[in-house]
Specification:
By secondary structure, the chain is of the alpha+beta class. Helix content is 33%, strand content 22%. The chain has 2 domains: 2-24 and 34-110, no CATH class; 123-219 and 230-250, no CATH class. It contains 5 helices and 12 strands. Helix 2 (146-164) runs antiparallel to helix 3.
Amino acid sequence: MAWITDAPAKALEIAIRDLHKAFDNFFSGRARYPSFRRYGLNDSFSLPVFITGKMWRKGWFMNVVFGKDSVRLPKIGRVRYHKHKKHLGKAKTVTVARRAGQWTISVACEIEIADPAVSDLPAVGIDIGVTKPLMLSTGEFVERDRGLIKLDKRKRRLQRELARCKRGSERRQRRKAKMSKVSRKIAGRRNARIHRITTQITRAFGQIAIEDLQVANMTGSAKGDAETPGKNVMAKALPPSQMKGIKFNEL
């Protein structure tokens, strides 16, 4: 257990706190049983930006120091990074994660938000579907991203190749790394697209009404069985992976 001293103490405290919260949610019936953390899966750790204590002259100490093109982490030192945008408000927590071989750092900030004013923009209703993800009451609609369809086909092909590889082989590791990169591209493209669409809608309309959907029914099979065959099977012929990729929960 000598390796445990190499990790920052605050990162270990936050990990134990998150584990306690996960089990609390499980025993309360709000979540499933916590998943096991291992190397190569969910590689991430969190650190508080400020540490309070009586030993410091000002009552607090800056645990994570941000520079122009680098950040200093405790027991790790200064690490260069590319800042996409300046964080607003007061930085509270920093999370360092590795996804598909790339390390990212995200900052949770505390921001004071004023009460929204009443908007004079018109209202709009949104119908969420399968072949067309979004259909507005104004007649406008959003088509499915063809690039995501190509990436999804590539991911399924890599999954079949991975299933044929021998466990523990170098070939399996290479296929797994390729599939992780494709998954990261799919997630990034989906997130960027959904944020772009929702931003355009919120800037153009003052009130938005969305139907209450049963996503589980939309992604389920419509074929039925021999005794009770399904109806409108072709209307639900879209693969469930692409239907779930529309990200209904963020609309």
